[in-house]
Amino acid sequence: MNAFIVISLIKVAIVFAVLMTTLAYLQWVERKVIAHIQVRPGPYRVGPHGLLQPLADVIKLVTKEDLIPSYVNKPLYLAAPFLAITMALLSISVIPFGPTIEVAGYKTWMQLTDLNIGVLFVLAVSSIGVYGIAFAGWASNNKYALLGGLRSSAQMISYELPLTIAIAAPLLISNTLDLRTLVGTQAGGIWHWNLIRGGQIVSFIVFLIAAFAETNRVPFDLPEAENELVAGFHTEYSSMKFAAFFMAEYANMITVSAMATLLFLGGWEAPWDAKYGSGWVPTAIFALAGFVALYHGINPPRKRDRLTFPAFGVVFLGIAALFQIPMLQEWILPLFWFAAKTGAILFAFIWVRGTLPRFRYDQLMGFAWKFLLPVAMLNLVATALGVAWLA
Amino acid sequence: MSEVPVSWFLTLSAVLFALGVAGFLFRRNIITVFMSIELMLNAVNLTFVTFSYQLKQVSGHLFTFFVMVVAAAEAAVGLAIILTVFKNRATLNIDEMNSMKD
Amino acid sequence: MDVVLFLIFAIIAVVCAINVVVQTHPISSAISLIGVMGSLAVLYLLLGAEFVAAAQVIVYAGAVMVLFVFVIMLLNAGRETVRGRSFMVQLLGVPLLIAFLGLLAWIAGQFYKPGTGVHFGGFTGGSPIAIGRALFTTYLLPFEITSILVLIAIVGAVVLGRKEMD
Questions:
Q1: What's the number of domains chain A is made of?
Q2: How many angstroms separate the CA atoms of A375 and A337, rounded?
Q3: Whether residues A28 and A156 fall in one domain
Q4: Is residue A381 one of the residues assigned to a domain?
Q5: b/e per residue C105-142 (b: at least 16 CB within 10 A)
Q6: Neighbours of A246 (CB within 10 A)
Q7: C-alpha closest to that of C13 among B11, A139, A217, A136
Q8: Distance (Å, whole) CA A155 – CA A157
């Protein structure tokens, strides 16, 4: 009992630290990717290639004046960002990052807690996250914030329906609500993933579109865009509470990408068997990145890059060598595949943000109720017929 | 004693139900009356699940499920009616919605 | 440990329920009702009803209460005014209520004295598999009827909420 508590606390500390760093650097990745889509360099000056930009942002947000206007409903005003970020971080606690590993004689999962209703827990927590936004709009005592908050909450609960029905289809194939067992049923290479063998391409696309709307991302970000309705529900918020809303949005993005990976793309399973060499893929990728960085370090475009490019090259080659140590391989390879798949979906989120214009609000709601929900339901019926026929 | 007696759950359910009845009878804002009805339904759900535990059957959970569905349907229609009434009378006080009395 | 958990969440439920009835502004009542539903969900987990607990949070606290909160925010009718109450009601109201509750509690205690004790893991038949099996075999008729009921409710709500075209 004692060992269980100590190991759980260590896991919580590790996951929290990694998650906070990922949230900060996800913002850096987003700004760089959108910048390159728009043919401009993005954050470039703070640290090498803007890598210290998240640190500068954190310092700015923390030292800004924390204004509480006098006309707001104080308890709700203070509780709303707290609720949003708590629910966003709570849903990470059931996401499995890898298989069971053995560290110093203790067997443990790479997951904070293994609920047997894991999928329902994530859905429940995201339903409560709607309240953070609704109360932020109400507490601000400002008609634009109220309208933005109500629109955003109505959008989130409307898109919860196609999301849930799109989740139900791969659950019919995998026959379990437990997230760890869900990955176990997709073991054996890319042919066994729910996307390919289960034929769940339609529900994958419906899930992604509904996930864009659930996390209030472009093209569904009308309620919080800067040039609509002043700034939506977070008009009256400043400094750390504003930062809390944005951390909650990025944490929600990570959660839905992880759910898409677990439900459709096979979680931490490698696309082909380890005996055909899938253990070499991360080494190859990082070695390639290292060599490219070293090559560009020979005659760089800016003088200061003469030092930073070779430094990055050496770091990447070191990570590539790390993937070949047999003792670390059993947990670092599944972690790499999980991170790669989740990262690909996050890249799709950022890519869409840089490319598409946003929907008008009535188009957005009509799309959910008149198109996405019937498509999700038809897909569920077709999947059910397929499972019954093949059984 | 690390077990909770079943009668405690039933007492809690009775207390919640009584509070729901009190809210239903004494409040004048129609939305608060509706919320007292939801409180009563929740108390009944707790009773169903408690007896399902005691009799070791799953039927109680299913009754709870159906009660939840009916409560959701009732809340939707009831709130739509409240919106219509508010549009016509601009008040949410049930004492003032007495135009069908003689 | 189970007793401690029960007491904490039962006290939270009762305090929030009293708040629902006592608060003047409907939004405070709505927030307290969400608190009641959350603590009841934890009590359902103690009783081994994991699917019902998840359904309570997803459907009741996460959808029905959002509907209530929306309507309160849209109508924005403000606090309820407290009219004068007679002195007799104020004197006797709360003591009578407490006496009534005490009577109910005593009756509940009398009937179920040597009862089953509730602890985590005492009932494992509340898993989604068991519920799904019972729902689609023994309780198929109520399932189909409630689905038609929900359809009627949807059509009714849409018709009632429509703007009149003059």
A1: 2
A2: 30
A3: no
A4: yes
A5: beebeeebeebbebbeebbebbbbebbeebbeeebeeb
A6: 18
A7: B11
A8: 6
Give the residue from chain B lying closest to C130, CA to CA: B58
Q: How many residues does chain C have?
A: 166
Q: What is the ipTM of this complex?
A: 0.91
Among B18, B27, B77, select the one facing C101 at the smallest CB separation. Answer: B18
Whether A7 and A57 map to the same domain: the answer is: yes
Most confident of A310-319, C94-103, C145-154: C145-154
Out of A63, A83, A114, a domain closes at A63
Q: Are residues A77 and A54 in the same domain?
A: no
What pLDDT, in 10s, does the model give residues A282-332?
888 888 888 888 888 887 777 777 788 888 888 888 888 888 888 787 888
Is C1-77 a CATH 1.20.120.1200 domain?
yes
| CA distances to C2, C106, C115 from C112, in Å | 19, 10, 5
Which residues in chain B touch residue C49, judged by CB atoms under 8 angstroms apart? 49, 52-53, 61, 64
**According to the model, what pLDDT value does residue A297 have?**
80
Chain B residues whose beta carbon lies within 8 Å of the beta carbon of residue C160: 77, 80-81, 83-84
Question: Is residue A292 a part of any domain in this protein?
Answer: no
Q: Are A137 and A152 in contact (CB under 8 A)?
A: yes
Give strand pairing partners of A109.
A100
The segments of chain A whose pLDDT lies below 50 read: none
Same domain? For A159 and A197 the reply is: yes
* C-contacting residues in B 12-41 (Cβ below 8 Å): 12, 14-16, 18-20, 22-23, 26-29, 31-32, 34-36, 38-39
Which pLDDT belongs to residue C152? 95
Same-domain status, A45 and A108: no
Q: What are the residues whose beta carbons fall under 8 Å from the beta carbon of A104, sequence distance 6 or more?
A: none
A131 and C63 in contact by Cβ < 8 A? Answer: no
Where do the domains of chain B lie, and which CATH numbers do they carry?
29-90 (1.10.287.3510)
How far is CA C27 from each of CA A135, A142, C67, C71, rounded to the nearest angstrom? 10, 16, 12, 10
Q: Could you tell me which chains touch chain A, where touching means 3 or more CB pairs under 8 A?
A: C
pLDDT, tens only, B35-85: 999 999 999 999 999 999 988 889 999 999 999 999 999 999 999 999 888
Evaluate whether residue A149 is within a structural domain. Answer: yes
pTM of the model: 0.91
Domain containing A6: what range? 1-63
